[in-house]
Amino acid sequence: MAEEPWGELLSFQTFQNKLPLGAAYGYGGEDLQGLCQREFARLGEIIYLDHAGTALYPESLLKAFTDDLSTNVYGNPHSQNISSKLTYDTIEHIRFR
After folding, report:
1. CA gap 95, 10 in Å, rounded
2. What is the pTM of this model?
3. Are 39 and 58 in contact (CB under 8 A)?
């Protein structure tokens, strides 16, 4: 039996071939396997499927967040002190970026 004529149109490979970036689409030029090995090495052989509960956080996010918390002091954004101003300014920056 012949393959459905629309099957080629809907394939991910066809989608990638039509893009200017080709296979680099969505991964910043890195292949998906390399991205998984770098960002989610802690999974090992585990296959994580519970994205409805929460998505996995990549190693780069953990490092950036830890570095930020290790170098800055955040306070209540409604208080009047230096750490609170940093928190307030950070919130405003995120809100309006």
Report:
1. 37
2. 0.58
3. yes
Give the closest residue to 61 by CA, choosing from 83, 77, 90, 38.
38
DSSP states along 6-44: THHHH-HHHHHHHSTTGGGTTTTT--HHHHHHHH-GGGT
**Identity at 28, one-letter amino acid code:** G
Q: Which of 89, 62, 61, 60 is nearest to 74 (CA)?
A: 89
pLDDT in tens, the chain (97 residues): 556 666 566 677 777 777 766 556 666 667 778 888 999 999 998 988 888 878 899 999 999 999 999 999 999 999 999 999 999 999 999 999 8
- Is there a contact between 27 and 45 (Cβ–Cβ < 8 Å)? no
